[in-house]
Each structure stands twice: as C-alpha cells, then as structure tokens.
Design brief:
This protein is mostly beta strands. The chain has one domain: Single Sheet (Rubrerythrin, domain 2). The protein has strands at about 5-15, 20-25, 35-40, 45-50. A 4-stranded antiparallel beta sheet has the order 2-1-4-3, with no helix packed on it. It is elongated.
Length: about 55
C-alpha cells in the first residue's frame, strides 16, 4: 500500500493563540503555511487560523 504524502497540521487562532483544529496538508504542493478563517470556540467568533508547529 502506498504512503500518504499528507502530514498533520495544527491550526492556531491568531487572536487567543489556542490550537482548535487539525488538518492535513501536502508539503510538496504547499510550500507556505496554511491560513483559514474558522470559528474559534474560545473567542466565539470567526477568526483567522494559521498553521502552527
């Protein structure tokens, strides 16, 4: 069976700095860090979430 090229990435809220989501990304196709607008349960609002280490 073939290995997946996707790796797990943590998504961290830019306002309160908490890790709320986990997603997969392909490191060979995406060179820059992921950025998504997602709902933060702590802030209770849609905020920008960036990929964390």
């Amino acid at each position: 069976m073939a290995k997946s090229k996707d790796t797990l990435a943590k998504m961290k809220c830019e306002v309160c700095k908490t890790v709320n989501y986990f997603t997969t990304r392909n490191k060979k196709k995406l060179k820059e860090k992921l950025e998504m607008k997602k709902h933060c349960p702590k802030c209770k609002v849609h905020t920008l979430h960036k990929e964390a280490k």
